[in-house]
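Board notes (copied after class):
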Amino acid sequence: MTDLPDLDQRTTPADHRFPCDNCGADFRFEPGTGTLTCDHCGNTSMIDGAATQAEPAIAELDYRAALNAELPKADIEETRVSTCPNCAAQVEFDADIHATKCPFCATPVVTDTGAHRHIKPRGVLPFALAERDARAAMTGWLGSLWFAPSGLQEYARKGRVMQGIYVPYWTFDADTRSTYTGERGTVYYETRTVTRDGKRQQVQVAKVRWRGVRGRVARFFDDVLVLASTSLPKHFTDALEPWDLSAMEPYTPEFLAGFRAEGYSVALEAGFEEARAIMDRTIARDIKFDIGGDRQRIHSVDTKLGTITFKHVLLPVWLAAYKYRGETYRFVVNGRTGRVQGERPWSKGKIAIAVLCGLLVAGAVGFVMAMQQ
């Protein structure tokens, strides 16, 4: 199976560059404003909405059609990307860039001349946080960490500009109906006589009476979110949640002006397997609620999936990768909320000083106690 249909003609690589209609320099998307801004002359331009009254603002795609390579050509695009030799990130670059550093791990990269053909994004959550605000959030987070190297915070504050990256995700919708068998447990108490410290006492002992049950539950899942990238540790990106998906805009490349976009590396079918695991956990909770009682056991679950739809969406992340004293540190900031996550830096010097201070304090306390005896 494949994510992409066989196209009769090669698609043209997308070039997300937008010249200013006043001076010809490149526009860039201004976070939090919904406008394009020219840094050369200060001209601005509004981004036209992509939605029409004839269709939903962000249309879903049929999952089974995608697996059968039956998606329309309009839902496929091709972009110029470079694959990092260290972390395998597939990052989109402008056509005139030939060498740079990978924004995910700071590895020097020479850009490819090839292209990446993939399912076109349907939605984009635009950046709402400017780079200066993301940097302030990151340095503040570093400053709150005990035993972090003092120089790293200052290095990060004065270091190179953070990279604005649109990270790929899948969202899945599914209509599910599940039948189950299990047991409902009812707690009751028996009075028993026990001997404690030579005295006979009556105590209440909890017991569970089990009764077999079967039933059905149904749930419609909307926008189950799955990371479609392997470039960053998943616990980094999970820690950036929640995402305000209700603010998502229909995809239009103007939102990418001045930013980079990562191509997805988790295939659609693998993404749905992860989404299905998320759904199964929710269904199990629904079943336990349906069983009721004081305790629940689930013996079997048979889930039927109705219509399954999906979207490829892009979510905004400010990213910094620094090489400091031979070590690489990566930090990510939610481009909407400013939530920060990253590698935990440790200062051996600070730890040694803290241990020494602890020993001195313990010694002083011991000396005082010895003098008082």
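Comment from the instructor: The helical segments are 63-67, 131-143, 150-158, 234-238, 268-291, 348-372. Residues 1-14, 50-55, 346-355 have pLDDT under 50 and may be disordered.
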